[in-house]
């Protein structure tokens, strides 16, 4: 899932300004962790509604590249890695709300778990509902229970993965290339769910660095 970026962008004034660039892996890792902790601590200490709105809507105006530069190369089971995955999930949902809603709804109809409830999307789940869910999950990182937001995102990924796999099975005989693409997408969602679940567990143990 981390392969998909949006249009290039420059850094807006006052946001993500701690990024210093450079290709040294140690520096990249240090900056990623420092900016993730600084941003999260500052906003959660004083969750001003306007600031939270700007953070939730950041990629709508500026694309994903600024965040990708900061956090996309971070370990999946780290604070910057978790933030990157939630921002990317929101972007992917907004790029195809109709398709995402379809796969999520299909998954909701077949999964034998409470994941659809944990994810928290309104039912029936259409494009508006799935877009709203993406916003509420990201907002929860800044002004709610951080681990719960990660758990909701993980549940969304598992349900959507199940939907993708189900549709892939339907199309295996008539559209094998499409079926293969959807199977790959299901695996990516499943992997992301595992990573986010691990991050939620680490956060609850105060070990998500």
Set down the secondary structure blueprint.
Elements: H1 25-45, H2 49-56, H3 58-62, H4 65-71, H5 79-95, H6 97-110, H7 115-119, H8 127-143, H9 146-171, H10 176-204
Helix pairs in contact: 2-8, 4-5, 5-8, 6-8, 6-9, 8-9, 9-10
Describe the protein:
- With 209 residues, the protein is mainly alpha-helical.
- The protein has one domain.
- It contains ten helices and no strands.
- Helix 6 packs across helix 9.
- The N terminus is likely disordered.
Which key features would you list for this structure?
mainly alpha, 209 residues, 10 helices
Brief account:
With 209 residues, this protein is mainly alpha-helical. The protein has helices at residues 25-45, 49-56, 58-62, 65-71, 79-95, 97-110, 115-119, 127-143, 146-171, 176-204.
Poorly predicted runs of 5 or more residues: 2-22
The sequence of SSEs as H and E is: HHHHHHHHHH
The figure for the number of domains is: 1
Q: In percent, how helical is the residue content?
A: over 70%
Task: Indicate the multimeric state.
Answer: single chain
How many helices? The count is: 10
> Which shape, going by the Cα principal axes?
globular
């Amino acid at each position: 899932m981390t392969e998909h970026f949006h249009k290039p962008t420059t850094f807006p004034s006052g946001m993500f300004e701690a990024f210093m660039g450079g290709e040294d892996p140690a520096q990249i890792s240090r900056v990623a962790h420092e900016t993730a902790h600084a941003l999260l601590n500052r906003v959660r200490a004083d969750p001003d509604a306007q600031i939270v709105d700007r953070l939730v809507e950041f990629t709508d105006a500026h694309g994903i590249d600024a965040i990708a530069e900061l956090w996309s190369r971070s370990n999946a089971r780290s604070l910057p890695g978790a933030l990157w995955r939630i921002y990317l999930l929101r972007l992917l949902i907004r790029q195809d709300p109709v398709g995402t809603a379809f796969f999520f709804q299909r998954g909701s109809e077949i999964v034998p778990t409470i994941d659809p409830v944990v994810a928290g999307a309104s039912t029936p789940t259409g494009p508006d509902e799935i877009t709203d869910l993406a916003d509420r999950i990201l907002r929860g990182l800044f002004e709610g229970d951080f681990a719960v937001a990660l758990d909701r995102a993980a549940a969304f990924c598992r349900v959507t993965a199940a939907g993708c796999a189900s549709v892939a099975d339907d199309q295996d005989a008539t559209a094998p290339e499409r079926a293969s693409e959807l199977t790959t997408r299901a695996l990516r969602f499943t992997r992301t769910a595992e990573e986010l679940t691990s991050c939620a567990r680490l956060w609850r143990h105060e070990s998500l660095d």
